[in-house]
Design goal:
The structure is a single chain. The chain is of the alpha+beta class. The chain has four domains: about 45 residues, no CATH class; about 60 residues; about 130 residues, Sandwich (Jelly Rolls); about 70 residues, Phage tail protein beta-alpha-beta fold (3-Layer(bab) Sandwich). About 35% of the residues lie in helices and about 30% in strands. It contains ten helices and 18 strands. The strands form three sheets. Strands 1, 2, 3, 4, 5, 6, 7, 8, 9, 10, 11, 12 and 13 form a 13-stranded mixed β-sheet that branches. The chain has a three-stranded mixed β-sheet with strand order 15-18-17. Helix 1 packs across helix 3 and helix 4 crosses helix 7. The longest helix has 25 residues. The radius of gyration is 27 Å and the shape is globular. InterPro entries: FecR (IPR006860), FecR_C (IPR032508), Ferrdict_sens_TM (IPR012373). It comes from Arcicella aurantiaca. Keywords: Membrane, Transmembrane, Transmembrane helix. One of its GO terms (molecular function) is sigma factor antagonist activity.
Length: about 325
């Protein structure tokens, strides 16, 4: 780390008192990726020591109204006597509210970036992540995971998942709970275990390989809880109701970590959804009956083309691909 930039210089910068030379040094210092984590840590420390500068919505409102009033000649046609209507009567308040909303939104986005580290995978990409507490995460394709930058493993063990991921959670001496939150009205709470969470647009489900987890979920406005045991598969319907079933090989649901795809009498329509979610390739069927044909077996595929070829040869059907659009036909 460049010793020319230290905590005192950054604190001066956060307070708005840095000199032009110091600002230039900080800019150059931040070009090094390893310095950015230190920057966020010292920013968090500074915010905890000093009163934060939050958006003054009242001041913003008054300034906006004054500016609008000063420019009313440009906002109102001079040659025509306008007929009062709701929009004109409330224009000042709407404009001021928009200003306040934009300020608040900007502050929210900035704080979210500062306090959380985001992992994102593209179509066809799988990412291995080791969290600060020693827990392991495999993030499937087309997924995102958000983790607190500061205090993870001591103050909190919450992560936010969109898409699909497998977790191997490390047990802590103080029995601190590990929570996976989703935007599908459910969360998974554990101590130490291995499980797979699937929270995509069309479906949500959790599979427990070993250990014990508790699901907290919403059905309407009611909060419910469910304790899973190894081998349990819990699926959620569109209104949030949970269905539990015992499966013989829960590890098959996380086979994607090794680029393996396991099918057990799976309709091609469901396979098509899986291919789209993982590789971004949209599949259509020339005949609806074709979409109901099933496939079984375990197949290794690094990309969509490999999997499409396997399906074509196994079922003796044809496909035509144009960019990311595929049509199956007999």
């Amino acid at each position: 780390m460049d010793k020319s930039v230290n905590k005192n210089i950054l604190f001066e910068s956060f307070s708005g008192r840095a000199t032009p030379l110091q600002k230039k040094l900080i800019e150059q210092w931040l070009l090094e990726p390893q310095n950015r984590e230190q920057y966020y840590e010292w920013l968090d420390e500074w915010e905890n020591q000093f009163i934060q500068i939050l958006p003054n919505t009242e001041d913003a409102l008054q300034k906006s109204l004054q500016k609008i009033a000063q420019n009313e000649a440009y906002l109102t046609p001079i040659s025509v006597e306008p007929t009062p209507n709701f929009f004109q009567h409330n224009f000042r308040w709407l404009a001021a509210a928009a200003v306040v909303l934009l300020i608040s939104f900007g502050v929210f986005i900035a704080r979210d970036y500062i306090f959380y580290k985001r992992y994102q995978t593209a179509f066809g990409e799988i990412q291995k992540i080791q969290l600060p507490d020693g827990s392991q995460v495999s993030l499937n394709a087309n997924s995102a995971l958000k983790v607190a930058r500061f205090g993870f493993g001591t103050k909190t063990r919450e992560v936010f998942l969109t898409g699909e991921a497998s977790f191997s959670v490390k047990h802590t001496i103080d029995n601190q709970r590990f929570t996976v939150k989703t935007d599908k009205n459910f969360e998974v709470e554990v101590l130490g275990t291995e499980f797979n969470v699937y929270a995509r647009q069309k479906e949500a489900k959790v599979v427990l390989n070993k250990g014990k987890v508790q699901l907290n979920y919403l059905v309407g406005k009611a909060t419910k809880q469910l304790t899973m045991k190894p081998g349990d598969l819990v699926t959620f319907n569109p209104i949030g109701q949970a269905k539990v079933q015992q499966i013989a090989q829960p590890q098959n649901y996380s086979a994607w970590q090794e680029h393996r795809f396991v099918f057990e009498q799976t309709p091609l329509k469901e396979v098509a959804t899986m291919i789209y979610e993982n590789f971004g390739v949209k599949i259509e069927f020339r005949d609806e009956a074709l979409s109901q044909r099933t496939i079984s077996g375990t197949f290794h595929a690094e990309n969509a083309d490999e999997l499409l070829q396997v399906i074509s040869e196994l079922l003796e059907i044809n496909f035509n691909r144009q960019d990311n659009n595929v049509t199956f036909f007999e």
